[in-house]
From TrEMBL:
Superkingdom of origin: Eukaryota
Reaction(s) catalysed by this chain's protein: ATP = 3',5'-cyclic AMP + diphosphate
EC number per UniProt: 4.6.1.1
Pfam families: Guanylate_cyc
Claim: Lyase is one of the keywords in the record: yes
Family membership: Belongs to the adenylyl cyclase class-4/guanylyl cyclase family.
GO terms assigned for molecular function: adenylate cyclase activity; ATP binding; metal ion binding
Gene: Ac76E
Domain Guanylate cyclase: 537-681
Transmembrane segments: 269-287, 293-314, 405-429, 449-470
Protein's recorded name: adenylate cyclase
Length: 734
């Protein structure tokens, strides 16, 4: 096998980001092979500062000394000096810049034979840097020094959960990516886990306790950080974090843009109310003011415009299509209105209120002014005119109120509009002859020193001031609300992440459908979780010669290196489970070096398939899985110079599945089928799939060839006729 990364060469190390190989070979030949392998390693330098630091950490972990990046750079390449001698020989270590990090464990002795194995730790230490790796070649030295002494770089097994937690750790505040935190849980968390009982594991995982706690902490956070301590309009700005004290704009411009672009679901109601108000004011004025063509002409355009905007705001989606397709396709401002109208601070909003407030009043007042010049039968209409003067004031009041209430823009723009309205109205009041007449007729008794126009102006100024204060207060509240929601959204995301982690953790230790049960179950449901299956397939795949490999010596850190290799094997087996084809295969557990799996454990799945076909499928898929396991192990053997072989036992039939345990609940299956499958393994032959007669029948129906083994004594069952399934490796593929 070649480690080269050229062309289509099959390098397991390069294909998968996680690997260490171990090799046990006997005698000098094996060592030579290792040497050949090592000299074929791809040389790829790491050049970034981060890479240098990583190099340093790797080197220091290998040497167990502090190696700085500078020191590392000084290490000269000497690939030609690989030295592999006799098994016990002390070999020098040469860090080779640009080659894969490799360690050659010192030789170990098993059964009088000298054994060596090499461990590639480059991937395990996650030393990848843009596809480049650094390599060190080493061999044995005295115990306690260098690589040859069996000291292993402190690499972490990359578990599924580990990687997941690592991936989400920034959100959760877990510092080390990819490494599950093993720190003691907080007392709150401990109490929470203590609720898990034998009868109800994972209890409370979805109940409201956690949510309540989160809710309380949210409220506390809101009180502390968001809600102003004193919410009077005068000092609200001083308490506002992140807001300009005068304009109340957010200091963060992105947040400001976000705030301004918020959709306003109330907009259409505001437009409708503004239109209604206009119609009412117009109606009142029609009753009080002398009718004339000028009056009607001044109302008409405003009314038409307002009604158009009401229509647009209520039927925006539909009308936008019409606008785009036919009427106003050349007028972007109009055709875009449908999109914009729901956002406060947009042009149409200003226009609506502006039109409504000003045109209507201005037209009325200008009519009043104008009536003095047109001389509309002054004798007859004199009394009517001066009696209608207060209605101008009331209309102005309503105008200011409509600007304040219905106009969905910032309070500053509202203030500007109100000031403009005020100035214009006061000027018109002063010019209107009717106001003077009214003052002469009715206003002389109270504050006669002030003309009625001035009194009206004062009223309007006070009103505008009051409305402005209210506007400011409302805007402050809505901005605080926006900030609050923004922070709450962030916290909500965290809660969602927590839920996600819960789910992932559960799904990592339980089959997905069982995890789902615990995540969604309610307290009233049955306490002990269990399922009965009439026909599932169970498989035990053991590596009998792993026992020979396993050894507890100083060289392999009291068995740690052997365990590392087993972990690699199991991890690779686990990866198979992720294939869609094996989605119905469930890993139950590992027992020592035995891998226990079952298929058909998903209630409700494949219901469309009839019972016989389902049975065939569950058994056949396990055989396929077994073949895949064998292929994987062969590959590992090739790369790590091992001779591991799988011995597989398979059976099918009814089982009962359930979750047992309180603090560490475990999903498991029980029944005669499981016992028999286990016995098929223990009485089986290395490299073969051993099955019962019933299972062999099912497999034959599914198209597999089974070779009768003959009567086999099975403890607890007596003598059974058993079969070996023919697989590609056994020469006769089905
Ligand atoms: N859920 C399970 N997980 C792992 N192994 C199991 C399970 N159920 C049964 N086995 C294994 O199946 C084998 C057969 O079980 P059985 O109950 O027939 O015999 P036993 O007398 O309990 O086992 P032994 O004689 O090996 O001690 C046992 O070795 C047992 O460990």
């Amino acid at each position: 096998m070649c480690f080269c990364n050229k062309g289509g060469s099959r390098s397991r190390v390069q294909k998968e980001g996680l690997y260490s190989t171990g090799a046990i070979k006997t005698g000098h030949n094996s060592v030579t092979i290792i040497r050949q392998k090592l000299s074929g390693v791809v040389i790829t330098p790491m050049d970034s500062p981060l890479a240098c630091l990583m190099k340093a950490s790797i080197v220091s972990s290998i040497y167990q000394t502090d190696v700085s990046p500078t020191k590392l750079e000084k290490i000269s390449p000497a690939p030609s000096q690989h030295s592999f001698g006799a098994a016990d020989q002390v070999l020098p270590m040469y860090p080779v810049e640009g080659t894969r990090v490799l360690r050659t464990e010192s030789m170990r002795t098993t059964g009088g034979k000298k054994i060596a194995y090499a461990i590639d730790i480059s991937r395990r230490a996650s030393m990848r840097d843009g596809g480049k790796t650094v390599a060190f070649e080493n061999s044995a030295s005295s115990p306690g020094e260098g690589l040859g002494n069996g000291v292993v770089a402190p690499t972490k097994p990359k578990s599924r959960s580990g990687s997941i937690i690592g991936a989400i750790s920034p959100v959760m505040g877990i510092a080390t990516p990819g490494i599950p935190s093993r720190s003691r849980p907080s007392s709150k968390m401990t109490k929470y886990v203590e609720c898990w009982g034998a009868d109800k594991p994972f209890a409370n995982i979805t109940d409201s306790t956690l949510a309540k706690n989160i809710g309380i902490s949210s409220l506390a956070m809101i009180e502390q950080n968001l809600l102003p301590q004193r919410t009077t309009c005068c000092d609200c700005s001083s308490n506002s974090e992140g807001m300009n004290s005068v304009t109340l704009w957010f200091k963060n411009s992105a947040l400001e843009v976000q705030f301004r672009n918020q959709a306003d679901p109330q907009f259409k109601y505001n437009v409708a109310c503004a239109a209604l108000l206009f119609i009412l004011i117009a109606f009142i004025q029609l009753l009080t003011v002398r009718e004339s063509i000028v009056l009607y002409a001044s109302f008409a355009p405003t009314l038409i415009t307002l009604l158009l905007f009401v229509y647009l705001s209520w039927y925006d989606g539909h009308f936008k299509d019409v606008l785009d397709s036919h009427l106003f396709s050349d007028v972007p401002a109009v055709s875009d209105y449908a999109d914009n109208c729901a956002k406060p601070g947009q042009f149409p909003a200003v226009l609506v209120s502006g039109l409504e407030s000003n045109i209507q009043n201005l037209s009325n007042i200008s009519y009043s002014v104008q009536s003095n010049f047109t001389g509309h039968d002054p004798v007859l209409s004199y009394h009517k005119d001066i009696e209608s003067v207060p209605s101008y004031l009331y209309s102005s009041v309503l105008t200011l109120a409509s600007i304040s209430v219905f106009l969905r823009v910032g309070f500053i723009l509202k203030l500007v509009l109100m000031l403009l309205t005020l100035v214009f109205h006061i000027v018109m009041f002063n010019k209107a002859e009717d106001f003077k007449n009214y003052h002469d007729s009715f206003g002389a008794e109270e504050f006669s020193i002030l003309p009625f126009a001035a009194k009206a102006g004062l009223v309007l100024v006070f009103l505008a001031a009051l409305l402005h204060i209210l506007d400011r207060q409302i805007e402050f509240t809505s901005r605080s609300d926006f900030l609050w929601k923004d922070k709450l959204k962030f916290e909500q995301e965290e809660v969602e992440t927590m839920r996600g982690i819960n789910k992932i953790l559960l799904e990592n230790i339980l089959p997905a459908h069982v995890a789902e049960h615990f995540l969604t179950s309610v307290a009233s449901e049955e306490d002990l979780y269990h399922e009965r299956y009439s026909s599932i397939a169970v498989m035990f795949a053991s590596i009998p010669n792993y026992k020979e490999f396993y050894d507890e010596t100083d060289v392999n850190k009291q068995g740690l290196e052997c365990l590392r290799l087993l972990n690699e094997i199991i991890c690779d087996f686990d990866k198979l489970l992720l294939k869609p084809k094996f989605s119905c295969v469930e890993k139950i557990k590992t027992i020592g070096s035995t891998y226990m799996i079952a298929s058909g454990l998903r209630p409700g799945k494949e219901e469309q398939i009839d019972a016989n076909r389902k049975e065939e499928h569950t058994v056949a898929i396990l055989v396929e899985f077994a073949v895949a396991l064998m292929t994987i192990l062969d590959q590992i053997n090739r790369e790590s110079f091992q001779r591991f072989k799988l011995r597989i036992g398979l059976s099918h039939g009814p089982v009962i599945a359930g979750v047992v345990g309180a603090q560490k609940p475990q999903y498991d299956i029980w029944g005669n089928t499981v016992n028999v499958a286990s016995r098929m393994d223990s009485t089986g032959v290395m490299g073969k799939i051993h099955v019962t007669e019933d299972t062999a029948k099912v497999l034959k129906n599914a198209g597999y060839t089974c070779e009768c083994r003959g009567p086999t004594y099975v403890k607890g069952k007596g003598t059974l006729t058993t079969y070996f399934v023919k697989t590609p490796s056994s020469g006769n593929a089905p």
